[in-house]
Design goal:
CATH topology of the largest domain: Arc Repressor Mutant, subunit A
CATH superfamily of the largest domain: Winged helix-like DNA-binding domain superfamily/Winged helix DNA-binding domain
Strand content: 15-25%
Shape: elongated
Strand order of the largest sheet: 1-3-2
Number of domains: 2
Bound molecules: iron/sulfur cluster
Oligomer: single chain
């Protein structure tokens, strides 16, 4: 059975990451703030990542590789009006369309026309 992290420590980590805002915080800075080893910190961060509460983005600072930690916002508001008329919703090629594929959004004239419709 896996060892579970104390909820209060996970909560503290999550709170620190949330406070860093949308720019996130470097993993190594989190270890310093918490005064924990990278091994212990990684375990805490992995637990939060598995729960879908944070995301880890690999970055390079100087010659060092590290991760940027960002809280996932669950307050995302989607305005359906903003996607009204998008050709993808009724496209026959939707299942085979994808970046790097023969049919792809980067070369799709219908999608480009829809995205630019308000630019004229
Ligand atoms: S990007 Fe173009 S081809 Fe792809 S699903 Fe949307 S409308 Fe269809």
């Amino acid at each position: 059975m896996k060892k579970r992290e104390p909820e209060s420590l996970c909560d503290k980590v999550l709170e620190l990451i949330k406070k860093s805002g949308p720019q996130g915080m470097l993993q190594r800075d989190l270890w310093k703030r918490l005064k924990v080893s990278s091994r212990e910190g990684s375990r805490l961060v992995s637990a939060l990542e598995r729960k879908g509460l944070i995301v880890r983005e690999p970055i390079t600072r100087g010659r060092l590789k590290t991760f940027k930690l960002m809280a996932v916002s669950h307050k995302l508001e989607i305005v359906l009006e903003s996607v009204r008329g998008c050709p993808c919703f009724s496209c026959m090629n939707l299942v085979r369309c994808g970046s790097g594929q023969y049919v792809n959004p980067e070369k799709c004239e219908d999608l480009t026309a829809w995205l630019l419709k308000d630019e004229k």
